[in-house]
Amino acid sequence: EVQLVESGGGLVQAGGSLRLSCAASGFTFADYAIGWFRQAPGKEREGVSCIRSSDGSLDYADSVKGRFTISSDNAKNTVYLQMNSLKPEDTAVYYCAADDYYSDCIKGMPDSWGQGTQVTVSS
Predict the structure, then answer these.
(1) What is the C-alpha separation between 69 and 114, in angstroms, rounded?
(2) In a designed cystine with 105, which of 13, 23, 33, 70 is the match (CB 3.0 to 4.6 A)?
(3) What is the β-pairing status of strands 78-83 and 57-60?
(4) How far is CA 38 from the centre of its chain?
(5) For 26, which DSSP code?
(6) What DSSP designation does 104 have?
(7) Spatial distance between the Cα atoms of 26 and 116, rounded to a whole number of angstroms
(8) What does DSSP say about strands 117-122 and 10-13: parallel, antiparallel, or unpaired?
(9) Distance from CA of residue 59 to its chain's centroid?
(10) CB count in 10 Å sphere of residue 54
(11) Is the dihedral of CA 90, 64, 12, 7 positive or negative?
């Protein structure tokens, strides 16, 4: 059974940083695409970043390029999202998700989802 557990959310001032973690289990970590998605109140869910460590595939939404960095630690079966230069518009619930097809991550349609972690950026 695929399990994804996010942590690291919180309240931060604009310009600050947070690092989210996604601990994964139940699948071959390196072969799966793992992504971060977010949903703000009243808005549609948005893809933030995807990674697949087996081949180095990596993508970011334009809104976070240059500010967010996704990485993975295969030894810990954990994916991280380092978020710098945070803006109030980054406020959302951030979800970790996984799929065995990288394209499904890019399309925002991964099969398995975590419970989410709240990120709030104050102005």
Answers:
(1) 19
(2) 33
(3) unpaired
(4) 8
(5) S
(6) H
(7) 18
(8) parallel
(9) 11
(10) 14
(11) positive
| Burial status of residue 113 (CB atoms within 10 A of its CB: 0-12, 13-18, 19 or more) | middle
Give the pLDDT confidence of 74-104 residue by residue, as tens digits: 999 999 999 999 999 999 999 999 999 999 9
Look at residue 83 in the predicted model and tell me its pLDDT: 98
For the segment 13-29, what is each residue's pLDDT rounded down to a tens digit?
Answer: 999 999 999 999 999 88
What integer pLDDT is reported at residue 96 of this predicted model? 98
Strand partners, 36: 49, 96
Distance CA 15, CA 24 (A): 29
Reported as type and span, the H/E element at residue 71 is strand 68-73
Q: In 1-123, where does DSSP find H-type helix?
A: 102-106
For the segment 1-23, the average pLDDT, to the nearest whole number, is 97
